[in-house]
Amino acid sequence: MSKVHREAERHFKTGRHILLIGHAGHPEVVGTMGQLPDGAITLVETTADAEAVSVPDPDNLAYITQTTLSVDDTADIVTALRARFPNIVEPHKEDICYATTNRQTAVKEIAAECDAVVVIGAPNSSNSLRLVEVAAKQGCDAMLVQRAADLDWQRLSGCRRVGITAGASAPEILVREVVDAFTGRFDITFKDVAGVTEDVHFKLPAVLAR
């Protein structure tokens, strides 16, 4: 999130108008837009918005993105913006969180092989909701649950293969709880889908490292 804030500040200082691809009301969007004067940032939520948005100067424009968006949906919006504003300045690096991207890639893979996908996450978690959308777009019955007690067994009754994934902030204990609920009810076989190997390591702040 802080990287997107810095990106917005950099563009503002150079006099560019900023298009923020994101969802209204999301904390990251509220925080990013709130750090700069009114009118400095225009929110773009959909491809239709990108095709209709009005900007002060088409040749002095940049875009940034909310980090927890759907990779596919963002790509469509970016394509629309590039078509309208060929000189738009893009982020130095991909703004969508690598963990979000990796999970969406894995969900696409498992949804293609499953009758349903269970996403473990909070209903206000943007990245969890995007996982549900990604699975649904693959033609899979996708449902969001916070824990095992939320599982709709009747809805899952006709399924032979069920995929289980979790939002980036879902604790491992809740994932294990859902897995245990399945093993306690059915005679099942598990298949792990590795997806993209995450080899990114974050350094501890100096005060903690000491």
Overall radius of gyration: 20 Å
The CATH superfamily of the largest domain appears as 4-hydroxy-3-methylbut-2-enyl diphosphate reductase, catalytic domain
> Which class of the largest domain in CATH terms?
Alpha Beta
First-residue to last-residue Cα separation: 26 Å
Q: Overall mean pLDDT score?
A: 85
Architecture overview:
The structure is a single chain. The chain is an alpha/beta fold and 210 residues long. The chain is 42% helix and 14% strand. The protein contains nine helices and six strands; from the N terminus they run H-E-H-E-H-E-H-H-E-H-E-H-E-H-H. The strands form two sheets. It has a three-stranded parallel beta sheet. It has a three-stranded parallel beta sheet with strand order 5-4-6, sandwiched between helices. Helix 6 links the parallel strand 4 and strand 5 (141-145). Helix 5 (98-111) packs parallel to helix 6. Mean pLDDT is 85; it is low at 198-205.
Task: Kindly list the characteristics that best describe this protein.
single chain, 210 residues, alpha/beta, Cobalt-precorrin-4 Transmethylase, domain 1, 3-stranded parallel sheet, 9 helices
